[in-house]
Backbone:
């Protein structure tokens, strides 16, 4: 890849797909990270045809340590932009949810963001240029009932907000920016996969 490179997690639909299209249009080559290989390759081909950009496809489930390590290894080689967009939500109430599922939610929403950002920043700082965009949520800006279905989700996104703000302040003057994006309700496949009622005004992600 001879162009600047943007690595995007969760790019096969919704907000992640929007980031992929935007960076491709802006002249970036891409590293696309998600679980669905067919959709990844279809996206890569459509971006190649539309924007003449090259995409590296990485099939990875960020809820697993091995997959996170694979992406970390790629990031240590350097990218211009990292977009931590992959997210995980649960519709069941906290007390009725399998602890392993709760752990998987935190592994995608928190652990992956931490590990991938930690891997991406040293090459960016050394180069004096780079951007990390962490997709949080307005849910991370307000507290909700502890036993609600979104309790751990909101807490994980609050972590993303404060993590991003702390890094942004610490990296001031380095040429590297860290940003937290806090969207409100967006009709994407996220809600269907999580089992949330998309017709409810309270379905804010």
Residues:
């Amino acid at each position: 890849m001879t162009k600047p490179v943007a690595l995007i997690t969760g790019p096969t639909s919704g907000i992640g797909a929007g980031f992929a299209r935007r960076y491709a249009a802006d002249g970036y080559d891409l590293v696309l990270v998600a679980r669905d290989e067919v959709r990844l390759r279809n996206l890569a081909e459509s971006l190649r045809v539309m924007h003449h950009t090259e995409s590296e496809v990485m099939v990875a489930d960020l809820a697993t340590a091995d997959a996170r390590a694979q992406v970390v290894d790629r990031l240590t080689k350097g990218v211009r932009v990292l977009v931590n967009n992959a997210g995980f939500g649960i519709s069941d109430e906290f007390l009725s949810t399998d602890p392993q599922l709760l752990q998987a939610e935190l592994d995608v929403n928190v652990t992956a963001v931490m590990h991938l950002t930690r891997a991406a920043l040293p090459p960016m700082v050394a180069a004096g240029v780079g951007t990390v965009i962490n997709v949080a949520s307005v849910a991370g800006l307000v507290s909700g009932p502890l036993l609600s279905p979104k309790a751990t989700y909101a807490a994980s996104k609050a972590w993303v907000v404060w993590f991003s703000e702390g890094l942004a302040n610490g990296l001031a003057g380095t040429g590297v920016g860290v940003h937290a994006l806090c969207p409100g309700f967006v009709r994407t496949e996220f809600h269907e996969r999580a089992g949330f009622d998309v017709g409810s005004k309270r379905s804010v992600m």
